[in-house]
Amino acid sequence: MIKKGIGRQIVLHYFFVVFLALLLVEVIFMIVIRAYYYDTIYKHVESRIQSVSEFAPKFKEPGQSLQSYLLNTFSLGDTELQLLDEKGNVIDNSTNFAAETSVQTSDVTQALAGDTGSWIGKQPGTGQQVMAVSKKLDNIVGDQVYIVRYTTSLEKVNDKLFTITLFSVGIMVAVLVIVFVVSTGLANSIVRPINNIRDVSAQMAQGRFDARIKGDYRFELGELASTLNYMAQEIARTNQIKDDFISSISHELRTPLTSIKGWSETLNSGGYDPEETKIGMQIISKETDRLIGLVEEILDFSKLEQDAMKLVMGTVDLRELLQEIMLNVWAKAEMKQIKLQLDSEEEAYLVHGDGNRLKQVFLNIADNAIKFSHESSIIFLSLQKIGDNIEVSVQDTGIGISAENLARVRERFFQVDHQNGGTGLGLAISQQFVERHQGQMLIKSELGAGTTITVSLPALQAEQPVEPPQLTEG
């Protein structure tokens, strides 16, 4: 017995469909065979009646009656020949059995109407199924009306049909057995991979992301297995990135907290001159700002993931924004003797967007450029209008990014160099902010040759009114 499940459903559906098809074929076959046998008998008898009807008007045998001559000459084996009058009364027959007094079956009625009539039914007295074929003889001498009626038993034919039926039913049963065996094998070939996929998926659900679905499955099952394996691989990779992020962010948080705690305890103990106290307070303030930046970056990412980030939209001049960013990162660039150079026309580059979020995007890009650039190098910032867009490019000649890391650099928590710190969320957040402004961010890089990041934003058209800042759902 096949247990409940998709295997049983497959077997039952195949079995049911084939059974209905075979049953339909069986019924049609038996109807056709029965019609063939019955029609053969009818045509044989009908041809004999035709001979009788052609012969009777020409009968001229002195000393012998037409009735006797017809009964003796045109009889058929295993068939009773009857001569009836116009009222259906039996005048004579070819057998020794007592004749019926009157025959009122439909074949007689049809014969009286001028057709060759036929009737199939049970013979009174014997109960046998018979076929009767009747025809009226025309142009008989003496104007006597005769109806020639042949009655033949169908028992032998029915026995033959019954044998054929049994044989065809046997074939039907054999086919159903074969279908059952084949469909069971087919169901098992489908269910086994599904059970394997289910078992491995259960292991994945329990956190075993190293489990893999093994087997060369074809078609949709193969695609499903590949998808689940890829999902497990991606989850394992994401978990590893998450673990690396937790490790990195723990270090990033611990370092400023250690400085703040150390200087707080030092200042609290007293005995320091004002200059030393001022240095300590500056360090505490700097590390506090660093902590705030880390927390805000994580909060921004969380809001973007939950689609809860709101943008304060307004008119933004990207040239002024880049100049402001250059002032913000100037001190950090000066520490590595890096020069920042802005290349743009002396005009306004207006876009419709959130100034603070766009500043966050370009500040992150510029900060990364400084972080991964060599000392005494130059970072080029450029602005240009191309069609209906404004492109902002930040190009450095730093360490660059390998092709392998370039494909993943915008993934959340991913860091090219863990030693430089950070959360690995900067570019992921920047990418989403650019997309929220209907823009695009393109990164080109070559390991050891530097990186160029280009942000393309829709330019504010001349016919567009300058709108005051307004909140929009992120």
TrEMBL record:
It is an enzyme of class 2 (transferase). Keywords: ATP-binding, Cell membrane, Kinase, Membrane, Nucleotide-binding, Phosphoprotein, Transferase, Transmembrane, Transmembrane helix, Two-component regulatory system. Its main location: membrane. The chain crosses the membrane at residues 12-37, 161-182. InterPro entries: BphY/WalK/GraS-like, HAMP_dom, HATPase_C_sf, HATPase_dom, His_kinase_dom, HisK_dim/P_dom, HisK_dim/P_sf, Sig_transdc_His_kin-like_C. GO terms for molecular function: ATP binding; phosphorelay response regulator activity; phosphorelay sensor kinase activity; protein kinase activator activity. Residues 188-240 form the HAMP domain. Residues 248-461 form the Histidine kinase domain. Its EC number is 2.7.13.3. It comes from the Bacteria. It is a multi-pass membrane protein. PANTHER family: SENSOR HISTIDINE KINASE GLRK, TWO-COMPONENT HISTIDINE KINASE. GO terms for cellular component: membrane raft; plasma membrane. GO terms for biological process: osmosensory signaling via phosphorelay pathway. It is found in: Cell membrane; Membrane raft. CDD domains: HAMP (cd06225), HisKA (cd00082). This is histidine kinase. It catalyses: ATP + protein L-histidine = ADP + protein N-phospho-L-histidine.
